[in-house]
Amino acid sequence: NLPMYLIWLAIVWTSAAFGEELFFRGFLITRFEGLFRGLPRASIIAVVFAAFLFGLGHFYYQGLRGLIVTGAIGVAFGTAFLLFKRNLWPLVLVHGIIDTLSFTAMYLEWE
Questions:
Q1: What is the pTM of this model?
Q2: What one-character-per-residue DSSP string does 15-83 give?
Q3: Does residue 54 contact residue 71 with C-beta atoms inside 8 Å?
Q4: Per-residue pLDDT averaged across 82-95, rounded?
Q5: Angle value at C-alpha 69, between 65 and 75, nearest 5 degrees
Q6: Which of 5, 59, 65, 78 gives 107 a disulfide partner, CB atoms 3.0 to 4.6 angstroms apart?
Q7: pLDDT greater than 80 at residue 14
């Protein structure tokens, strides 16, 4: 169903790619840094906490493996957020491409 596939791609790009990056990287990491200000490596702690919450958000439908995998992706994306000087656009683009590939594989019924 091509129209449904395109609707889901629009949802994925707005809610997951843009929304999750804005919330988990742009908002949470910044807030956690403020919370941990004064502690050594506050930015690293902030990235780990945000990544754990990102993984936890995927736990209910992906299980423990999903929590670990998406948590690790959250650490990688959080680190990239800091390395890219808090520029979210590269992360939004990569997140959107990853999700697009996943949805395309489902749409084409690839195993």
A1: 0.89
A2: IIIIIIIIIIIIIIIHHHHHHTTTSTTHHHHHHHHHHHHHHHHHHHHHHHHHHHHHHHHHHHHHHHHHH
A3: yes
A4: 97
A5: 145
A6: 5
A7: yes
